[in-house]
Design brief:
Helices cover about 0% and strands about 50% of the residues. It is mainly beta. The chain folds into two domains: about 15-170, Immunoglobulin-like; about 195-305, Sandwich (Immunoglobulin-like), CATH 2.60.40.10. Strands 1, 3, 4, 5, 6, 8, 11 and 12 form an eight-stranded mixed beta sheet that branches. A hairpin with a 2-residue loop joins strand 22 and strand 23 (about 295-305). The longest helix has 4 residues, at about 50-55.
Length: about 300
């Protein structure tokens, strides 16, 4: 994250940070940005498994900012850049099904405290936590009553039982950053920019990732979502898959054949790999991504039991 020397414009911000199913989390007022937070996870009515009921350590697997959360509090359309009006969604994925422990998210702007919210894993039976399969998702939503200042000096510190889990950053775009609706190709005259490459268990109708992960079952499928800056309408995107440096397959997509939503400000390209026979278990799988034969980057994923 680029950190410039900024002169902090004193603003009167009233923020609401919503947690769980309509509950309001306590928040200390910031000098310039008092707020409340709501964490919005929910738990399906299902008893914890015998294995997880006796688990000790709480392990955070993924922390993902997104433009939306699904009903299980898993991220939809991951991003780290948001409009000034928000909302800012954060999804935390924990290993297993913890029965107790306090999860807290503290929000800051330029090291100035904004607000915080806490979720108790013990509330699993009251609809505050939602477990999917063997893992548990906790979702947080930050909604300002007045627009946030543009900048990239926003951070979220996460804790479990007051022990730090990690610090994550996000940005607020300029209010004039969105291109006009009639724009057809934001990359005219300049190179295409790959913003995100995300493996996931599913892709939505616009090819954005649902439930990000980099570990898949041997039977697959393996989904990969690529997000490009702007509205691309030309170019060939290719994904080349390898296992232990041995070619598995490759596939290409012509951007001229894609259809973008009218309001889209970025271009999503989705790939799906479904093996005819189960893949060997291991973590030596890679995908090379190309645009018009130019290598963009290489990404790794694993096949689990």
């Amino acid at each position: 994250m680029s950190i410039g020397t900024l002169r902090l414009v004193l603003l009167t911000l009233l923020m609401m940070l919503v947690a769980g199913c309509g509950g309001t989390a306590p928040a200390e007022p910031a000098p310039e940005a008092p707020a409340e937070e709501e964490a919005a996870p929910a738990e399906e009515e299902e008893s914890p498994t015998e294995e997880s009921a006796g688990s000790g350590d709480i392990v955070l697997l993924n922390a993902t900012f997104a433009r939306e959360l699904d009903e299980n509090q898993a991220p939809i359309d991951p991003t780290e850049t948001f409009p000034p009006e928000g909302p800012i969604y954060l999804s935390l994925e924990f290993e297993g099904r913890p029965e107790s422990g306090l999860v807290k998210a503290e929000y800051y702007y330029q090291d100035q405290y904004i607000t915080e919210a806490t979720v108790d894993f013990a509330d699993v039976n009251s609809g505050v936590i939602f477990s999917v399969g063997e893992n548990t998702f906790v979702g947080f939503t930050l909604e300002p009553d007045q627009p946030f200042p543009a900048g990239d000096e926003y951070t979220v510190e996460t804790f479990v039982n007051d022990e730090p889990l990690g610090t994550y950053t996000f940005s607020i775009e300029s209010s004039g950053a969105e291109p006009p609706a009639e724009t057809t190709d934001d990359t005219a005259g300049g190179p295409a920019v790959l913003l995100n490459a995300t493996f996931a268990r599913e892709l939505d109708a616009d090819q954005a990732p649902i439930d990000p992960t980099d570990t898949f079952p041997p039977e697959g499928p393996i989904y990969l979502s690529l997000e490009f800056e702007g509205r691309l309408q030309s170019g060939i995107v290719t994904a080349v898959y390898y296992y232990q440096d041995e070619l598995i397959t490759e596939t290409s997509i012509d951007l001229a054949d894609t259809t973008l939503p009218d309001a889209a400000t970025s271009t999503f390209v989705g790939f799906s790999l479904a093996p005819n026979q189960p893949f060997p278990v291991g973590d030596e799988y890679t995908v090379e991504v190309y645009l018009d034969d130019g290598l963009l980057d290489t990404y790794t994923f694993s096949i689990g039991e």
